[in-house]
Design a protein that fits this description.
The protein is of the alpha/beta class. It folds into two domains: about 5-120, Enolase-like, domain 1, CATH 3.30.390.10; about 125-365, Enolase-like C-terminal domain (TIM Barrel). Helices cover about 40% and strands about 20% of the residues. The chain is built from 13 helices and twelve strands. The strands form two sheets. Strands 4, 5, 6, 7, 8, 9, 10, 11 and 12 form a nine-stranded mixed sheet that branches. Strands 1-2-3 form a three-stranded antiparallel sheet. Helix 2 (about 80-90) packs antiparallel against helix 3 (about 95-120), helix 5 (about 150-160) packs parallel to helix 6 and helix 9 (about 270-275) packs parallel to helix 11.
Length: about 400
């Protein structure tokens, strides 16, 4: 089997309301999907490449003009070879960041093809551990039109729908946010009041997670951590900049709240350094950014050797969701499947022809459909497709 083509799909959609986090506000959602075709007309692979905030054109150019010529003609059932070939060929200006994020989409598509060719779902092909995964709702942004009571009501609704936890944004406070154009800043005490309201709404028997989006310095993060301990928060996600490894290590050594991260990082080598240093207690890559499933499975294996859990950031289409879930289901230390709770048309009905998982009492299990288990309704992509 040979790769015969690589096609990108640039998507854009405007949310019904803007959402704010510690580093900015946005309302437009964007994604880049990757379709890999083969010389077998019955087998194609789908993937997704992260392009958070960047122009579609830049990501598409790297995928179609730089990476595609390197992979066309290769056997997609050799994803390790393909990954290494691209990594070495782009070494002088790649290694991390955007190039690896672009490679993620092709890598996921190759693994999708591998599963389809083998007639196995990826969660089985990658390890097949198969333990049901805890599902939590993820939202909790700062919103212009939302009172504290309305914020708590959203979380209570997620609980009523069966989610076993909720993740919210924190850290949009004046003393650490240096950008004047970020709205809805809170005082530290006001932000803690939001966390307390969230804890009460989700209940003491369910998980509450918080996400600092890399906006805090270690000392301010420590102030938060003291409050988070009292409120029995499950994890403190990306509290500081990922480059500040020493600061993150200091924070982690002074709190009982596990540090989760870093979704903004790429490659297994980077995650190994974070785990070795003690900067994170929960490995949390983003499969569409970190380098695809080829890298995420190495991160999961390394975390297991260090007796650490692995989860995944999950903030885009069903393709990224399906790849994340496949990895979490494949390994013994995988858990916590993130379900974005804000509206997005690129998940579930209207985007897929069939579901790729089932959820019962807040626990997720995979399906037996080969590959990612995702059948994209390509005709419907034109609803959101834009020219890069």
């Amino acid at each position: 089997m040979k790769i015969t083509g690589v096609e990108t799909f640039s998507l854009s959609w405007r949310m019904p309301y803007p959402i704010t986090y510690a580093k900015g506000e946005y309302q437009d959602r964007e994604a880049v999907l990757v379709k890999v075709t083969t010389d077998d007309p019955d087998i194609v692979g789908w993937g997704e490449s992260a392009m958070w905030g960047g122009p579609h054109a830049a990501t598409v150019a790297v995928i179609e003009r730089e990476i595609a010529p390197l992979v066309i003609g290769e056997d997609p059932r050799r994803p390790e070879l393909i990954w290494d070939k691209v990594y070495q060929a782009t070494y002088m200006h790649g290694r991390k960041g955007m190039v690896v994020a672009c490679l993620s989409g092709i890598d996921i598509a190759c693994w999708d093809i591998m599963g389809k060719a083998a007639g196995l779902p990826l969660w089985r092909l990658l390890g097949g551990y198969g333990k049901p995964i805890t599902c939590y709702a993820s939202s909790g942004y700062y919103r212009r039109d939302q009172s504290l009571e309305e914020f708590a009501a959203v979380i209570a609704k997620a609980r009523d729908e069966g989610f076993r936890g909720f993740k919210m944004k924190i850290g949009n406070i004046a003393q650490v946010n240096h950008h004047d154009d970020v709205p809805l800043r809170h005082s530290f005490d006001g932000d803690v009041a939001r966390i307390r309201a969230a804890r009460e709404a989700i209940g003491a028997d369910r998980n509450l997670m918080v996400d600092g989006n890399c906006a805090l310095n270690p000392r301010v993060a420590m102030r938060y951590a003291e409050e988070l301990e009292r409120l029995e928060v499950r994890w403190f996600e990306e509290p500081v900049e990922p480059e500040n490894v020493a600061g993150c290590v200091e924070l982690a050594s002074r709190t009982r709240v596990p540090i989760a991260g870093f979704e903004t990082e790429t490659t297994a080598k980077t995650f190994a350094r974070l785990m070795d240093a003690g900067a994170v207690q929960i490995a949390q890559p983003d499969v569409v950014q970190v380098g695809g499933l080829t890298e995420m499975r190495k991160i999961a294996a390394y975390a297991q050797m260090r007796h650490l859990p692995v989860t995944g950031k999950n903030y885009s289409t069903s393709l990224g969701q399906a790849a994340t879930l496949a990895m979490l289901l494949a390994v013994p230390n995988g858990d916590y499947f993130e379900w974005e709770y804000d509206p997005l048309p690129w998940r579930g009905e209207g985007f897929l022809k069939a579901p790729f998982f089932t959820m019962t009492d807040g626990m997720v299990t995979g399906v037996e459909t080969p590959g990612l288990g995702v059948e994209v309704d390509e005709d419907k992509l034109n609803t959101w497709r834009v020219t890069p």
